[in-house]
Amino acid sequence: MQIDALLRRLDPSGTIEEDTGGVLVRCPAHPDGRPSLLVGLSSEGTASLYCRAGCSTADVLQAAEMEMADLFRVAGEPTVTKIEYEPLGGAPLAALASYVDWAASRFTGSPAEKYAARRFGVTPDLAEAFKLGYDDGASELFSRDYRSESYRAHPRLVVPFLDWQGNPRGLQGRDIGGRCPVRWAGLQNPRGADGKPVMRWDTTGVVRADTAYDTVLVTEGPGDALATASAGYTATFVRGAGVARAERTAQEIAAGASGAAVVLAGDNDRSGRQFNDALGESLTAHEIQPRTLVFPLAHKDICKWRDASGDAFARKLHTAVSDAPQWTSAPARRDGEGVRLPMDGTDIENARYALRVVGPDTAHVEGVGFLTWTGTHWRPMSRSRENAIGHRVADAMRAELDEMPKGDPKGSGEEREQARDHVEATKRVRRMHMDSGIQAALTHLKTITGRDVEEFDAAPHLLAFRNGVVDLRTGELLDHDREHMLTRLVDLEYDPEAPAPRWEQFLAEVFPGDPEMPEMPAFIRRLIGYGITGETREHVFALLYGHGANGKSVLVNTLAYAFSGITTHMSQAAIALARSYDAAAPNPALAALRGARLAVLSELSDGLRLNEALLKQVTAGDPVVARELYKGQFTFHPTALLIMATNYKPDVRGQDDGFWRRTRLIPFTREFTVEDRDATLPERLREEIPGIIAWAVRGAVEWYRDGLQEPASVSMAVEEYRRSADVLEGFLPGVLVRDPAGQIKLKDAFDLFLDWRVDEHVEPVLRWGKQRFRQQLESRKVAYNPRGTGGVGWLIGVRAAEKG
């Protein structure tokens, strides 16, 4: 159905007023003296109805004798009733300025301030520059009030539409409670005594700070503009392709930009492309050569891109702006109907056809493979599912072939041409039914849908569950969104109120007695909460240590079960120090860390040493190169908290601060006797998994607010572990002592070391040469001067101990 036909069925009078977010017509479900039914149209062709008087969509459709199906597959641009508006000014403009000032005075400390910071990255200084405000809808205004009932029904972030001189000329309020069907609501246009609009608020605005870059980005709405301006750019927003085509819009941008570069930043959909093309044509007529912002197709708009990118958004936006190509007009379609025939089926065309088959639900990451959107998260495709894409294309091509006229090789000229076309198309269809054709199409589909591995799981504060996505900073449950780009799912319902009394009793039983132990359960909660965030700023390796039956394995196994969707397991072969290492060999255990939040490490067997360098690299979040079996290598940033439960402290030889600063040795001193043990405990704890998940989410919220706050017993245990692991304990200090004024020749110190090694029978250092000896002392913060007195090497800050 065409949009005009839809509007006539809703309002036979034909009165259609342009409004922010769509058009206004009279509502058929109630006596409507002035148009109050807002009709919007999405880029997918779905119409939305919102009555400002409160009528439900079902009531509106029933009154208009329409069905819900009539709101789908709607096309075209609405024909708005032509109204001669007076220039905006006088009392309405003064009332608008007063309202903007009033809302701005209520912004600091309000829910709108928190929303603007979280959703758009707006700092308090930027909010003041942008003149943002807050309106809870409860206050009565004493001047002219242009707020509708629907506007006032929900608390809103107030975003004024400023002109290039910083004066408000209109505004929109963003619902921050998530309950209003119209997220962005505008003010009612000023009307005359007869109830007809006499002025119209501006539908464009400028957002910029004094320190903004000169480059101007043009977005479709104020939300994208705020996100863009918060990253340092001047942003102007234009509501819709119709306004973008207006001569006045191009004139205002041309005058305001004053020669600066202009980048078109429409959404990643059909309407966004129409927006860019409409504005591109208008600006080109004003001798401005705009460029077009290209950002990942997985993100519908700039706000979604920012949500998925987290702290990396500004950097990614700067890169995209720098790489933005010059806008060019859209190419003409090859025929009036846009029909694709099987004879067009080159490998690239078949890949494009496959893209239409899979839509926005497929992405490809080098080294990882194809990913598909499940409705809750992005999941790797199996090889058979990849091939199924090719099968669907092949079946569609066969159906197209069946619709083609076969022609006649001996008939008229047109029939002979049809026969040749059919033969050629048959060859292409047959090839697409062969493995070579399928693989060729999939190869090009990889290029078309290609994504950077870093685009996924880039928002560590988000965690997907069956019933939504939890913001671990606040505990808020959000809707699933493919643009969160999450590849892991906790396959359970999230219930923040779920209890876990036996779990909390278990933690209290595991950590008794010690004066520091009462703090340990809360520390464990914050530690695991930190782990499920995917943040790496703490650089932590959790080592749960203790002899015998003390609860550490039950704790780790229960958490791994509860969070199985975000947990990976690493064998001792993956974490033990190996004498030979082939970087090009597959390392699936390391590759499994991609996207994981918790990593359970196997206890090391006797004689194996911990790979300290690998643990430092993984816990720091530094880039790691990995390769799965039969796939290409890829680089990613690990996000997992490493956890090892062990009866014996791992063999660690290094004394550099990097490893020890990361280690959190958590002592499990309780030993449960046979009488104390509860054989049913693991099963009982599994019954409390929803409560354990809520417990961990509370720990994440606490960590974001307060940090880890580790007990002193953990720090003391690490220091003791470090001293016991030092193979030079007894030599330094002992044979050598620290002295700020002291120094000793490296040769003399090494001779003392050789004697000590023999006397004390210290096997780990038997093969040390002079260079290894020096390096080990340097790791213990002993300075070395290679060209000291006499031109030989000296150790600085130590001396030989006095004999006595």
Automatic annotation (TrEMBL):
Gene3D superfamilies: 3.40.1360.10, P-loop containing nucleotide triphosphate hydrolases (3.40.50.300). One of its GO terms (molecular function) is helicase activity. It comes from the Bacteria. Residues 519-681 form the SF3 helicase domain. InterPro entries: Helicase_put_C_phage/plasmid, Helicase_SF3_DNA-vir, NrS-1_pol-like_helicase, ORF904-like_C, P-loop_NTPase, Phage/plasmid_primase_P4_C, TOPRIM_dom. Keywords: ATP-binding, Helicase, Hydrolase, Nucleotide-binding. It holds the Pfam family DUF5906. SUPFAM superfamilies: DNA primase core (SSF56731), P-loop containing nucleoside triphosphate hydrolases (SSF52540). This is Putative DNA primase/helicase.
